[in-house]
Design a protein that fits this description.
The complex is a heterodimer of chains A (497) and B (491).
Chain A: H1 4-9, H2 11-27, H3 36-59, E1 63-65, E2 70-72, H4 74-100, H5 108-125, H6 129-147, H7 154-185, H8 190-198, H9 204-222, H10 230-237, H11 240-247, H12 250-265, H13 270-293, H14 298-318, H15 328-359, H16 375-378, H17 380-394, H18 400-414, H19 418-446, H20 460-478, H21 481-496
Antiparallel strand pairs in A: 1-2
Helix pairs in contact in A: 2-3, 2-5, 3-4, 4-5, 4-11, 4-12, 4-15, 4-21, 5-6, 5-12, 6-7, 7-9, 7-10, 8-12, 9-12, 9-13, 10-11, 10-14, 11-15, 12-15, 13-14, 13-19, 14-15, 14-18, 14-19, 15-17, 15-18, 15-20, 15-21, 17-19, 17-20, 18-20
Chain B: H1 3-21, H2 27-43, H3 46-51, E1 60-68, E2 73-79, H4 86-100, H5 109-128, H6 132-141, H7 143-153, H8 158-186, H9 193-198, H10 203-220, H11 229-236, H12 239-264, H13 266-271, H14 273-292, H15 297-316, H16 321-352, H17 363-366, H18 368-381, H19 388-403, H20 405-430, H21 437-440, H22 447-465, H23 468-486
The chains are: A mainly alpha (497), B mainly alpha (491).
Amino acid sequence: MIDNISWLAIYPEIVLLVMTCVIALVDLGVKSPQRTATYVLSMLTLAVVAVLQGVYASSGNTFYGFGNMVVSDAMGNWLKCFATVAMMVTLVYSRPYAADRSMLRGGEMFVLAMFSLLGMFIMIGGNNFLIIYLGLELLTLSGYALVGMRRDNAVATEAAMKYFVLGAMASGFLLYGLSMLYGATGSLDIGEVFKAIDSGQLRHQVLVFGVVFIVAGLAFKLGAVPFHMWVPDVYQGAPTAVTLMIAGAPKFAAFAIVIRLLVDGLLPLARDWQQMLAVLAIGSLLVGNLAAIAQTNLKRMLAYSTIAQMGFVLLGLMSGVVSGHVDASTAEAAYAASMFYIVTYVLTTLATFGVILLLAREGFESEEIADMAGLNQRSPLYAGVLAVCLFSLAGIPPLVGFYAKLAVLQALLASGQTAYIAMAVFAVLMSLIGAFYYLRVVKVMYFDEPLTATTVSAPLDVRMVLTLNGALVLILGILPGGLMSLCADAIMRSLAS
Amino acid sequence: MGLLSLAIWTPIAFGALLLAFGSDKHAGAVRWLALIGALIGFAVTLPLYEGFKLGTAAMQFVEKAVWIEGFNIHYHLGVDGISFWFVPLTAFITVIVVIASWESITERVYQYMGAFLILSGLMIGVFASLDGMLFYVFFEATLIPMYLIIGIWGGPNKIYAAFKFFLYTLLGSLLMLVALIYLYNQSSGSFDIATWHQLPLSRTAQTLLFFAFFAAFAVKVPMWPVHTWLPDVHVEAPTGGSAVLAAIMLKLGAYGFLRFSLPIAPDASREWAWLMIALSLIAVIYVGLVAMVQKDMKKLVAYSSVAHMGFVTLGFFIFNGLGVSGGIVQMIAHGFVSAAMFLSIGVLYDRVHSRDIAAYGGVVNTMPKFSAYVLLFTMANCGLPGTAGFVGEWMVILGAVQANFWVGLLAATALIWGAAYSLWMFKRVYLGPVGNANVRALLDIGSREFFVMALLAIAVLYMGLYPRPFTDVMDASVAELLRHVALSKLN
């Protein structure tokens, strides 16, 4: 017997699933090469789902369904809401690009994107190792298909293969770690696992063994060094529209499962996973920033920049627990900092790739840094949007990326630990290196002469969303308080339950 | 909305307007709109002088509102005697720059003017901020428009200069960011600068903070030996960029010393004063000598800026009223004089497209009106009594002699070096027979340039002949600062 609460907990997911199936069927009858009907229907569905998630999230309630298998809490619902909006924006940017590259012969792109979103929902809402794993598989399987969607393109096929092999391996790592924990604690339920570990009666060795594999699996998914090898190849090889689908919304889901597994489930083992996160973070900052300098391909550069940005997220996640002592307010501040970081990162990434997608034309992938030359003369608006995003990624105020870095640095320095302060200084120096390669793209756009005089034209929906997206990076930079409080509040409510 | 908010946001609003709606097709309208914006921006700073109360060290025109609740960051503005003059000065220089760039900028005028107006608002924001994070946001945000100004409208080696400017100053300010967050945690969650002033700090903490702030401000001032970015950047920047950089941006660093380093880490400041004095004297003497051998006019003035800013930091770290007030007066005077010097070079560069001293000679024969102005500014640059350049230097030298005779003596030699490089450049460029065909073809300045020069000349002379309005404003605040610095904060 399934109670009403259980249905309520996954109501938006059900809407999304049913509508995705309907859209898949409706699409069979769509003739337009732009797939207008499919597109409109998808956007409407996503808008409804986003509103539903927003309503759930702003109520701030936490409740469990299906015998504690899924949870609906403020953090999860906000992340789902943001992921939905991110997916909508992605689809807006992607459609003209995909239409030019015969990726819209069928409506699979929309259907797969929505299935991957469903996977994210399940990951974010999972309160059980298996549910989380199932969500992850749904997300990544849709992702493999999306990356390989241009069958006739060798680079994309290679990227799909790499993504598949390495992704399957990461899933294997994660599953192995989860099974170790299951063996040790006798439960798949995150709350039960927490209690079992907290009792202190289990063998530490077995638990740590499991944690190592779980962290490795998560690091794969986040793309942290030394598990980052797939990121540049997949970012570069995948069609840019799909790159955005991988680089954008799924980051919310990755963040959510890190919180669910490491914090909700394994907080008593914080001392063990913290050290691993610290190593991952430092490695990511170092390798990501240094390797990005050497890139000439913009997508590849952004891939390395993502690795570096994930280093910052990991620093925030790491600083929640100080020397094994769990303090609620410290932990909340740290995880809220990471959540804010992820949200701003995705917001900025969307606009960045939006401009790259816009500049790509039929038969021409505008993905080399040199292709951006003189963009300011060709289109001041889009050059401005991209410049704002790049300065934000570099962490220059008054753009939103600065406050994300500020929040993480504050989480580190608040601990008062020398090692953490040293890491903060290191992170700061690495962002100086980061500033160099972001500035280089700005330089190409603003200081160099254009190679082509063609003006940049965009459909109305792309133009509006892109302008709004760029403006948000600036507006949230001038007034970041609201989003910051939202993240802090969501984390607080979720951890309290 | 308070006066300070108006002073900050008026130019920014006009700048944003230009960026959003301007285009190269309407360059004429863009110029006029920019001028209107700059003039309104300047006009709103004038009531500040009317309303400023003398004889108190308290912050005036205070505005305070919560900005970022989660971090207890406030939109907290106010000026005291130390920061007051930089608000109208910034707005004034912006007007000058807009007029001076009227014809010399022909490409992407709306972006140029927009960047300058936004930059102006941001710099006023730096001087008016009473919240550490607000200060940092304004301080850092100035990098973006300046980077674009140098990179888009600069000289042949502009890209190197733009990167050097951005990364050099970013390195310093990132260390300051760590210091600010550290202070936030030490003061149990406050970014209020006044709270930090009262915060007891251990000797180690003060030393680390002092050097973190030093990294940010010394690069910005710039002090020897981290001054090397300035000549490169000045040479490549467009005339307006050089003028704003020398007149206002360098002052952001010097101002930071007074607002952060001295009052927050007074013990460390006293302990390391010898180092600061030594670096300042090296700037005054060694960099002064370096200026003398320059072949490029802009480079010469850039090095002379470093030397003049050496006087400013010297004045701050001898810890007496004359020294600190002299330093601030020197900052204001250098704002006028350096802007005038760079604009004069710009006038020649627009006509001949060379900055080499050797490319000129006998300019006075073809441009007599212009040369008369330049003579005045050159005299001010070497600190002739009766000009703005004299007052500050003289006060700092007096203060230095009070503190230590030998420091004073070494500082006083600067008047010799200053006269040497300034007058020698004037002789080679302006005096003598007509040097070449380019100089023979020169046309004297038109009414627009004449007007700009006249405004600056009036400011330079007024400040030199009657500096009291300037010193009166700062007296109380400087006395309070010195009283505060004399107290130990060790616990």
